[in-house]
Write a structure and sequence with these properties.
Strand content: 25-35%
Helix content: 25-40%
Order of helices and strands: EEEHEHEHEHEEEEEEEHEHHHHEEE
Number of strands: 17
Largest sheet: 6 strands, mixed
Strand order of the largest sheet: 6-5-7-8-2-17
Number of helices: 9
Shape: globular
């Protein structure tokens, strides 16, 4: 595993934006009688916030989250020197969406911009990338944006995908600070199983054709186009179950982290049944392992920020906390991070 130690970087705040529109899994028209209840019981997902008609994109939600966070921090926009956008839902194939967001946010032209194409583990990837730049002291302030409109990447007629994924955008503020506690990471990748979660068409390997736009019935209530995301559910389940506990244990052993001393254990919100198996393997108590799945579903790389603001906001605002987080999924990729916070800025979730 790839270990990374970051010094002199403080996490100053987190903000989240989600769509106002809520979809109830009991009422979506992709289930036979009794199926919805079984899916909710297994996944823990009762509802999701999803965009309507594709009018709102990941960049729009990240923009709203960033505007709120910057205002609440009292940062001058001219003081922000780097911006990173992590998403599988860019505005365009080119240019990078971070370039567009630099202008929409009113950041200076001297601001460095980066796009990262990543999903489930994307908050950790972005945090590691951006904090590595800030650690040198050359860049003093940076904003990390994570977001996806997963509901637009999945078929609305697919009972395997539609109940799982919600939409959200998040902003995380980083600042150079000589007194900051270390941020500790490890990462891993299993690229040989890249096709466990993928969209077959739409890139240069498989460009869009007339056939890409045609819906195909693969099984009852499983109707997809080749442009829609597909997932090997059992394969991904086995992957998460094996890699997440190992990643957390490896991080704790490498950096002598006391898992019992962690205030919150935050997991990528993939599936309640799987996450509970991981929690029990690590022997972490329920009260230290919050979930946002029931209300927001799987929000891709925004899921850890969503969990923080929807379930732990008061603690993050008022206390000094020790946090351990882990994420796993598309890539296949995974990672874990340990960090400490000191009464950071966490505005209430913005709904648009």
């Amino acid at each position: 595993m790839a270990f990374l130690e970051i010094k002199n970087v403080a996490l100053k705040g987190i903000a989240v934006c989600a769509p106002k529109n809520i979809e109830d899994n009991l009422t979506i028209p992709v289930f036979n009688e009794g199926e919805a209840e079984r899916v909710i019981a297994q996944t823990g997902i009762k509802q999701k916030h999803v965009v309507e008609n594709g009018d709102t994109l990941a960049s729009d939600m990240c923009l709203a989250a960033a505007e709120k966070l910057i205002a609440d921090l009292g940062w001058e926009k001219d003081s922000i020197e780097a911006l990173c956008f992590v998403s599988l839902s860019p505005d365009y194939l080119e240019p990078p969406t971070a370039c567009i967001l630099q202008d929409r946010l009113g950041l200076p032209e001297s601001c460095m911009t980066i796009d990262i194409n990543q999903g489930c583990s994307g908050w950790l990837n972005g945090l590691a990338t951006l904090s590595s730049l800030v650690m040198t002291g050359s860049i003093k302030r940076a904003i990390l944006l994570n977001g996806d409109t997963s509901s637009l990447l999945n078929s609305p007629y697919d009972k395997e995908a539609r109940p799982l994924f919600g939409d959200a955008g998040a902003a995380t503020a980083l600042e150079y600070d000589n007194n900051a506690k270390r941020i500790l990471f490890n990462f891993g990748t299993r690229g040989k199983e890249f096709n466990a979660i993928m969209r077959k068409d739409g890139g240069l390997r498989n460009p869009v054709t007339e056939g890409s736009l045609k819906y195909k019935e693969l099984a009852p209530h499983i109707v997809r186009r080749d442009l829609d995301a597909i997932m090997d559910g059992m394969g991904v389940f086995a992957f998460g179950m094996s890699t997440a506990p190992k990643s957390v244990k490896a991080l704790c052993e490498h950096y002598s982290i006391d898992l019992e001393g962690v205030d919150y254990f935050l997991m990528h919100q993939a599936n309640h049944y799987m996450n509970e198996k991981i929690r029990k393997k690590l022997k972490i108590s329920e009260e230290r392992t919050p979930y946002s799945l029931d209300e927001y579903g799987n929000t891709s790389s925004a899921s850890i920020p969503v969990t923080i603001l929807s379930r732990c906001r008061d603690a993050f605002v008022s206390k000094d906390l020790k946090i351990l987080a882990t994420a796993f999924g598309v890539g296949l990729a995974w990672g874990s991070v340990y960090f400490e916070t000191n009464k950071i800025v966490c505005p209430e979730i913005v709904l648009i």
